Structures are given as structure tokens and as C-alpha cells.
Amino acid sequence: MKYLNTVGGMSLLEMMIALAISAALAAFALTQYRNHLAKGRQTLAYSELLRIHQNRQTALLKNPSWSLQERQAYLDRLIKHDTVPKDLTEHYRISAVHSDTQSHLTAQPKDPALPTVWLDDAGYGYLCQSPHITTDPTERADCQAIR
């Protein structure tokens, strides 16, 4: 009668505890994996914004007489017609934010829990927690520079 409540020498309570620990470890591992993927996508977004920025800078060197509107239009064409990796477009929306004096590149995640990747005119990158992309990231507390 003593062994009716056991499986392989473990009591049911011990088995339930072991299953709970296994489930917690599996959930932790899955979270770590998702965080790793998100970090990789952030890196991809940043490198893609840098590539678009470099293509724009090369065109501006060749066409120094372009007006601000021509520069902004060229940047918009680069974003629409440039080859952005499919993995990136599945998770981010690449766009340009134009002001009176400059243009910023942003990669907004489709998952609102992830930070927005921001690249300014000088090529400096930032990660911003809120999706609000019209404010300069250097003036916001929720943004950190990418080094």
C-alpha cells in the first residue's frame, strides 16, 4: 500500500514539484531565447539604418546642390526601393522623420515591448523605449545611445 502513491519511487508531491521546476526552467529558457532574437533584430535594424544612411551620404556627396526637399525625397526613395531584409520588415517598419533642418531614420518594432531604433543625420544611433519618434532622442529620458 505504501507504493500506490508513487511513480518510480517518487511521491506524487515530489513529481508535481519536479514538473513545476521543469516548467519554470523551460519558460525561463524561452524568454531568454526571445530576448536573444529581439537583440539580434535590433542589431540588424541598426546596421540596416546605417547602410541606408551611408547610401544617402554617398549620394549627397555626388549632389551637393540638392535642396532639403530633394534630400528628403531621395531618403524616402531609398527606404522604399532599397533592399531591406525580409526578416527586418517582418518585425520593424523603416521610416524617415523629416524636420525643417534634417531627417532621422527610424526602425519602429511591430512589437510595442521592443525599443525603437533611431539614427540621426550624423549617423548616431539610439534605442528609445517609447514609440514617439518625432522628438530628438538626446532630449528624451527613455533613449540611450548605441555604442
UniProtKB/TrEMBL annotation:
The chain crosses the membrane at residues 12-31. The keyword Transmembrane applies. Keywords: Membrane, Transmembrane, Transmembrane helix. InterPro entries: N_methyl_site, Pilin-like, Pilin_PilX-like_sf. It holds the Pfam family N_methyl. The pili are polar flexible filaments of about 5.4 nanometers diameter and 2.5 micrometers average length; they consist of only a single polypeptide chain arranged in a helical configuration of five subunits per turn in the assembled pilus. NCBIfam families: IV_pilin_GFxxxE. This is Prepilin-type N-terminal cleavage/methylation domain-containing protein. The lineage of its organism: Bacteria, Pseudomonadati, Pseudomonadota, Betaproteobacteria, Neisseriales.
